[in-house]
């Protein structure tokens, strides 16, 4: 089976709001898949629904051959899903070392991954003893990604890694995501179309809580009209 | 890059310590040595007790957004049960098998779920079977404790303390085993029924992992053995405890008080708090109600009277030790410290408080649990998204907090009256400590407790000296809270939201 994750027509409610009205996403193993769409289209909620943080009310989520919808979030994550939330949600009152250590699922995870992680983000090694709130925005974002790499994850859900980063840091982040996609599968949410188009192999466009378009990134890049119609502002920004 | 400056990043801590030292020097100069040292020591004693109540309160709030108004009741329950263990543990040994039997049944929930979820039931039957099972189990519990002389067992202990006679002579005869064994079995059945209702028979959407099933079998097995042991030692246990060296018995009663608090805390979290996490406003009402229920239960069992727990011989030999060293050989009731005659037991409370601060501080800073708690205070969703079972951590924190409050209660029992509302004042002060220290901050609770204990003691001293109303002393803590909140609205160590 070449799909590590299959999201089939999930519907999610937050309070009384019907946020997702039928999102379907297939994530192919060892590739980068990106979800595009306007603000508030439901991309972040889709990631949270996969992870069980906002459990879907209808539809199925199949990860690595087993249905996971309805399970508790910690249980789903422990199956091997790493999550990099938006807004660089690291633990600000913990040191960099502790931020990484807490992500261990078994003893020694961090030791065995340390070389790989610090190879991707050499800055973090230097900052290892600092508390999270002493880091700059870019360093915090790198820590958030690094944290998801500590445990043995088969799938990484990465939410807007470029948000609020300076152009030079975006380059570095892209390099890192490309490098880590050699060993794991990535499902990316990204507003920055330039970054998404450079990284991803497959794309999904989420609009108004539904999957609107899907296909190969190479085809989307050609289709200027579709980009303009569905993503509008997002392209100009990139 | 900003270098972390040790002094700058701990500026609040040093600021507060500097203020305390400054005030101390002022106090020392104006008050004279003897009253100053005495008041400081009293303040430290109070601060130790405040800390033990406040530590749990602040962590429970920080992690779960729960204002636990039943925390003072834990203090009280710890004092009562520890005191009972010290003076006459008959009632504890008499009830233990029943509680263990009930818990054994409850822990079978996952096993029952595994076997019952496949049963074919109509949707209507599924809905009605849950309350029916709960109702039946309540009837069974009633049958199990019917005619059990709990009141008598409590009263015996009461008489034993009040007359200060030989407690061994006061052990009431318990039911013969031939009659008694029915009770734990009924309790076990009641536990099974409750577990079955929690297992939602017929609901096929549930999942039971083989790992969970296995651990449930092991837990039930261990608990069943423990129940049988508890039944067997029911009569010999109290005698053996009372024959123990009184000092040893006292330290054991500290442990028993804390363990009872831990057990009660875990039970409250799982049964009452967990279903209400999503509606934290209801939790205020639920825990307030629970505090009342616990207080009334204690009143029924022990009558609304105030008792005095006797100090263990270690702290009650007549005379005054000339210094701490002399106390180690004399075990005197008072010790001379810098010219002040101070009760040795209160020094023990200060020591206990300091030990607890250090132990908890080390756990919070260096253990994985402490790391998860600190992370969870900031963002518990993200902790869960890392694959950590946050609910389990909630239960552990609730349990630890309750245990610490109960330890404070039994620790305080030898010098404050043991009575149903003994926890209320400490709960109120602990809330103030938590607000001053910053909600959810452990070091805030430690510093806040120190500050408040000293404020209260010095307030009392000055109120007495200038013959002011004692209400002023009581207000001193609230005044400090007001000042701190004016300067730092999130508390001393609170995070700006």
Question: Care to describe what's here?
Answer:
The complex is a heterodimer of chains A (238) and B (497). Chain A has 11 helices and 10 strands. Chain A is α/β, with parallel strands linked by helices and 238 residues long. In chain A, β7 (155-159), α7 and β8 form a beta-alpha-beta unit. Chain B is mainly alpha-helical and 497 residues long. Chain B is built from 22 helices and 3 strands. Chain B has a 3-stranded mixed beta sheet with strand order 1-2-3. In chain B, α5 (90-106) packs antiparallel against α8 (150-163), α5 (90-106) packs parallel to α10 and α16 (344-366) crosses α17. The radius of gyration of chain B is 25 Å and the shape is globular. The chains are: A alpha/beta (238), B mainly alpha (497). At the A-B interface, α2 of A face α17 and α18 of B.
What is the count of helical runs of chain A? 11
Q: How much β-strand is present in the residues of chain B? A: under 5%
Distance between the termini of chain B: 25 Å
Strand proportion of chain A, as a percent range, falls in: 25-35%
Q: How far apart are the termini of chain A?
A: 35 Å
Structural class, judged by helices and strands of chain B?
mainly alpha
Q: Low-confidence parts of chain A lasting 5 or more residues at pLDDT below 50?
A: 234-238
H and E order of chain A:
EEEHEEHEHHHHEHEHEEHHH
Task: Give the helix/strand class of chain A.
Answer: alpha/beta
Estimate the helix proportion of chain A, in percent.
25-40%
The two chains with the largest interface, and their residue counts, are: A-B, 28 and 24 residues
Number of helical segments with 4 or more residues of chain B? 22
Shape verdict of chain A: globular
On the 0 to 100 scale, the average pLDDT of chain A is 85
Rounded to an integer in angstroms, the radius of gyration calculated over CA atoms of chain B is 25 Å
């Amino acid at each position: 089976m070449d799909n590590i994750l299959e999201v089939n027509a999930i519907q999610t409610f937050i309070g009384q709001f019907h946020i997702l009205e039928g999102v379907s996403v297939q994530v192919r193993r060892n590739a980068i898949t990106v979800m595009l769409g306007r603000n508030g289209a439901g991309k972040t909620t889709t990631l949270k629904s996969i992870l069980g943080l906002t459990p879907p009310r209808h539809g199925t989520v199949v990860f690595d051959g087993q249905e996971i919808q309805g399970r508790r979030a910690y249980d789903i994550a422990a199956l091997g899903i790493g999550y990099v939330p938006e807004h660089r949600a690291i633990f600000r009152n913990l040191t960099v070392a502790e931020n990484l250590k807490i992500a261990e699922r078994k003893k020694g995870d961090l030791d065995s991954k340390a070389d790989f992680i610090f190879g991707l983000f050499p800055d973090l090694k230097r900052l290892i003893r600092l508390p999270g709130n002493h880091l700059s925005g870019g360093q915090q974002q790198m820590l958030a990604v690094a944290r998801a790499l500590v445990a043995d994850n088969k799938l990484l859900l990465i939410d807007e890694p470029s948000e609020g980063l300076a152009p030079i840091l975006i380059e570095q982040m892209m390099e890192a995501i490309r490098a880590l996609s050699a060993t794991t599968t990535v499902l990316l949410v990204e507003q920055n179309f330039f970054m998404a188009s450079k990284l991803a192999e497959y794309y999904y466009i989420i609009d108004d809580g539904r999957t609107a378009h899907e296909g190969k990134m190479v085809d989307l890049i050609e289709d200027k009209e579709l980009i303009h119609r569905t993503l509008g502002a997002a392209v100009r920004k990139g | 890059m900003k270098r972390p400056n040790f002094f700058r990043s701990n500026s609040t801590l040093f600021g507060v310590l500097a203020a305390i030292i400054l005030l101390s020097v002022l106090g020392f100069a104006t008050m004279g040595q003897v009253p100053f040292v005495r008041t400081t020591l009293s303040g430290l004693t109070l601060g130790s007790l405040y800390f033990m109540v406040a530590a749990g309160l602040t962590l429970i709030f920080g992690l779960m957004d729960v204002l636990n108004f039943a925390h003072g009741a834990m203090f009280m329950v710890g004092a009562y049960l520890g005191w009972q263990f010290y003076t006459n543990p008959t009632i504890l040994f008499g009830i233990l098998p029943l509680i263990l039997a009930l818990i054994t049944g409850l822990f079978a929930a996952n096993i029952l779920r595994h076997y019952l979820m496949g049963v074919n039931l109509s949707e209507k039957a599924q809905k009605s079977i849950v309350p029916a099972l709960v109702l039946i189990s309540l009837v069974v519990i009633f049958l199990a404790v019917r005619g059990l002389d709990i009141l008598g067992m409590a009263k015996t202990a009461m008489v034993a303390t009040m007359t200060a006679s030989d407690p061994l002579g006061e052990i009431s005869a318990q039911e013969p085993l031939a009659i008694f064994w029915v009770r734990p079995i009924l309790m076990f059945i009641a536990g099974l029924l409750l577990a079955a209702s929690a297992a939602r028979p017929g609901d096929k959407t549930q999942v039971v992992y083989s790992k969970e099933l296995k651990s449930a079998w092991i837990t039930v097995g261990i608990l069943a053995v423990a129940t049988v042991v508890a039944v067997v030692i029911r009569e010999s246990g109290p005698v053996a405890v009372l024959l123990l060296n009184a000092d040893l018995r006292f330290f054991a009663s500290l442990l028993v008080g804390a363990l009872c608090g831990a057990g009660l805390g875990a039970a409250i979290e799982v049964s009452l708090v967990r279903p209400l996490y999503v509606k934290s406003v209801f939790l205020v009402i639920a825990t307030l109600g629970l505090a009342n229920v616990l207080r009334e239960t204690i009143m029924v069992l022990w009558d609304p009277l105030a008792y005095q727990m006797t100090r263990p011989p270690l702290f009650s030999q007549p005379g005054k030790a000339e210094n701490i060293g002399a106390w180690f050989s004399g075990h005197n009731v008072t010790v001379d410290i810098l010219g002040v005659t101070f009760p040795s037991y209160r020094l023990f409370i200060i020591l206990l408080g300091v030990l607890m601060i250090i132990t908890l501080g080390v756990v919070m800073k260096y253990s994985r649990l402490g790391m998860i708690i600190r992370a969870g205070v900031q963002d518990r969703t993200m902790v869960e998204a890392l694959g950590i079972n946050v609910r389990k951590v909630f239960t552990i924190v609730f349990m630890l907090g309750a245990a610490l409050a109960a330890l404070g209660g039994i620790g305080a029992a030898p010098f404050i009256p043991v009575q149903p509302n003994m926890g209320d004042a400490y709960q109120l002060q602990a809330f103030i400590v938590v607000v001053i220290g910053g909600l959810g901050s452990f070091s805030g609770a430690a510093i806040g407790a120190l500050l408040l204990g000293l404020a209260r003691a010095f307030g009392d001293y000055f109120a007495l000296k200038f013959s002011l109303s004692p209400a002023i002393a009581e207000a001193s803590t609230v005044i400090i809270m007001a000042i701190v909140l004016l300067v730092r609205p999130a508390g001393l160590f609170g995070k700006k939201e």
